[in-house]
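Colleagues,

For the teaching module next term, I've prepared a clean inverse folding example: a structure given as tokens, and then the sequence designed for it. I'd like students to try predicting residues themselves before seeing the answer, so please don't circulate the second half yet.
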């Protein structure tokens, strides 16, 4: 197989540099000079690829979001019920907090899911809330309910991450119960969904070579 063009390799180094810096410090403190130095390129080379550091972050976010969403979908769509899917989605991010330190830094050094995940958690929750509303004839506002859940989950996980604490399963269950209660879910279905255990996800460690990821997804050995 032919080697990737130099331009592709350089962009991959820039993307890896952005990830590495995100794991170490807040994005607001990172400069274009930091990204270029970490990638081993000149500032001029950086601007051959991106107009700003925020554009570089947006590019990395888009690439990593594909990996994250694929991982989430392979997990949640093992479940038929909306309640179980939402439970697994929330506990997925609890597991990242508890067991995936690089990814925890990636997500919870941000000020919200939307800074690290395309569309934020709302983009994943909203269609599930809508489906649940239609199947159970509940009158939820899907976007409002999804935003309510996201705005409740993220600050709590961020606080635990900042304190370098893990979130016990019992408390994760309580978060799920509160989230599902906001959708009007109650009784046994609420308890069963709240107690669902999410397996630790197999996400690769960061920084991740987007080039290698794309090769893997394309079926290269």
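(Answer key — instructors only)
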């Amino acid at each position: 197989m032919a080697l990737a063009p130099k331009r592709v390799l350089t962009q991959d180094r820039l993307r890896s540099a952005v990830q590495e810096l995100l794991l170490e410090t807040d994005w607001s403190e990172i400069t274009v000079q930091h990204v270029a130095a970490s990638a081993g390129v000149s500032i001029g080379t950086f601007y051959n690829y991106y107009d700003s550091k925020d554009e570089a972050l947006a590019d990395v976010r888009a690439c990593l979001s594909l990996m994250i969403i694929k991982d989430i979908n392979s997990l949640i769509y093992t479940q038929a019920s909306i309640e179980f899917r939402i439970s697994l989605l929330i506990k997925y991010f609890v597991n990242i907090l508890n067991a995936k330190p690089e990814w925890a830094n990636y997500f919870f050094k941000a000020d919200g899911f939307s800074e690290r995940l395309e569309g934020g958690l709302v983009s994943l929750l909203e269609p599930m809330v809508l489906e649940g509303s239609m199947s159970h004839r509940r009158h939820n506002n899907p976007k409002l309910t999804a935003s309510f859940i996201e705005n409740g989950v993220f600050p709590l996980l961020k606080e635990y991450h900042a304190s370098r604490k893990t979130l016990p399963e019992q408390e994760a269950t309580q978060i799920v119960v509160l989230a599902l209660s906001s959708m009007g879910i109650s009784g046994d279905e609420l308890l069963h969904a709240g107690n669902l255990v999410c397996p630790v996800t197999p996400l690769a460690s960061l920084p991740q070579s987007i080039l290698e990821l794309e090769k893997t997804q394309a079926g290269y050995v």
